[in-house]
Specification:
Length: about 400
């Protein structure tokens, strides 16, 4: 589930690390998201991956030399520097980081970085002894202070067989970092947004629980959409394998009670609450500390209601905005309007769990927006990222005193 990077111009610099082969997947992900990608390779990088590989993936010539023989290139490094919306160096070696930090420009990639004014991101990859080297760390700190971005490496098994820091960041983390650079605006700068996402799990015993099929994708998309508009975002989510932008303050919980506690903790400091989580309505009165053994006898599970988190938050909202979701299977509009009024919400987002492409585990959604004045707007089936953007547009309209129908 990725944001679209339509027509964004991205240069990927590949340097001489064993992780150079992983740049192929990074380039592919960027292209699939709609970006136009060009690749620059250092001399050492070509020892690991052939330029033809990236030429095949991108459809563009791969630049490997600053002054190639028998070819007039004039000031190509300047033209490329002006063309790019973002330069990603992945993998970035300690050598390339040192070059840029000390102002050395002796190949096409280092010269290009020196010439550009667009954001530059380094995704380092190296063995752990190099990753903890004090000179390398000082170079990183210097570049960070100068505004260069870093996608910090992860810990794991390295090419040497050692276990430690230095492993190239995951494709998702790299993609999110690039998307953050090329898509971010200041539309919601200064706003603090609290989003809940995903399911909760209510334990019956240590191995069994009550839950639902929520994936958390809609809530994550809303948190990311707000973040890309410049808001400070707090995301409280149930069990999920989704990743999100590094700048989002994400907290993982398991139960409805834990989610209620986190919302109570964070809501006083936020301007907007979007409750996209599918919180369990019931939880066992008692949870067994030991696994309940299978037997021939039936068992009865006694349940109690969980706290109505959004209703509690709405009673304390003041002039702030609270947005809820209504996932229905029949007579959806009536139930959504009842929930909107009963819980004193500003906006409710209705979707039908039985509709193809709009239920759990899909990357798309079809939502009907109903505001507190009763105005209704039906959105088309679209990606959850696009749905999130439309929901934020509607929220901005409401804050201006307009209806959900207003054009953003």
């Amino acid at each position: 589930m990725k944001w679209q990077l339509d027509k964004k111009a991205i240069i990927v610099g590949v340097t001489g690390s064993i992780a150079a082969y992983k740049a192929c997947a990074v380039v592919r992900d960027l292209i699939r998201a709609g970006a136009e990608v060009r690749v620059v390779m250092t001399k050492a990088a070509q020892k690991f991956v052939a330029p033809l590989t990236f030429e095949t993936l991108t459809g563009h010539e791969v630049v490997t030399e600053l002054f190639p023989a028998h070819k007039v290139v004039k000031t190509r490094h300047i033209h490329w520097a002006e063309w790019a919306d973002c330069i990603l160096v992945s993998p970035a070696t300690a050598n390339m980081v040192a070059k840029v930090a000390t102002g050395i420009a002796d190949d096409f990639l280092s010269t290009l970085i020196t010439a550009t004014r667009c954001p530059v991101l380094f995704a380092p990859a190296m063995d752990y002894q190099m990753a903890v080297n004090s000179i390398y760390l000082e170079n990183c700190e210097k570049l960070k202070n100068l505004g260069y971005g870093f996608i910090d490496p992860e810990e794991g098994e390295l090419a040497s067989g050692a276990i430690g820091p230095g492993r190239l960041a995951s494709n998702d983390r790299i993609f999110h970092a690039v998307a953050s650079q090329v898509l971010k605006s200041n539309q919601m700068q200064g706003k603090r947004v609290l989003v809940t996402a995903g399911p909760t799990q209510e334990p019956i015993d240590p191995v069994r629980y009550i839950s639902n099929a929520s994936s958390g994708k809609m809530g994550f998309a809303l948190a990311e959409a707000a973040f890309l508009r410049g808001a400070d975002v707090t995301l409280i989510h149930g069990p999920s394998d989704l990743n999100t932008f590094a700048g989002i303050q994400a907290t993982s919980i398991r139960t409805a009670e834990q989610m209620a506690q986190e919302v109570r903790k964070h809501w006083p400091d936020h301007d907007l609450l979007i409750m996209a989580a599918a919180v369990s309505d019931f939880t066992p009165v008692q949870s067994s500390k030991q696994k309940i053994k299978k037997s021939d006898a039936d068992i009865t599970l006694q349940l109690k209601r969980t706290e109505d988190i959004i209703q509690s938050a709405a009673t304390e909202k003041g002039n702030r905005v609270v947005v809820g979701f209504a996932l229905e299977t029949e007579d959806g509009e009536r139930h959504a309007r009842e929930k909107l009024q009963a819980k004193k919400l500003d906006l409710i987002c209705l979707n039908d769990a039985t509709e193809a492409g709009a239920g759990f585990y899909t990357d798309t959604n079809r939502v009907t927006l109903i505001d507190k004045a009763g105005n209704i707007k039906q959105l088309d089936l679209m990606s959850k990222q696009d749905t999130a953007s439309h929901i934020l547009d509607a929220i901005e309209n409401l804050k201006k005193g307009q209806s959900v129908h207003a054009e953003s």
